[in-house]
Amino acid sequence: MTGLMLASESGHLNIVRLLLQNGANVEARDGNGSTALLLACLEGHVQLAASGGFEACVSFLLERGASPSATSKGGRTALHWAARHGDWGVCQLLLAGGADPSAEDKRGLSPLALARRQHHRQCATLLLQAEQAQE
Q1: Domains, the chain
Q2: How far is CA 76 from CA 17, 27, 49, 103, in A?
């Protein structure tokens, strides 16, 4: 795991900025195939409770070229994780950054399916609208 991954996972925007300004690879992967953006979205629910810097961290990673389409070994994208945790703001950022709302993980689950399973209605509505806009 890289320093960028640790900082992203913890929502430390200032450290993320510093690392990226000094050449950290935004697309580096850990042993599970996760990028800094995936780890940030995986842990985002914790950071939202602790501080308001999480959405800014995701936004900054996207601005610096993090791919919203990168997948973990299980085939989940950052949008899958944000939807699973009901993080509407991050879902919105990822969709604006080009994330595919209909992408399926290795189990055949889309971000919309995960949002519905967890009863995250606001995220589910956003994702349904995004899927319909693709058609």
Answers
A1: 3-134 (1.25.40.20)
A2: 25, 15, 23, 8
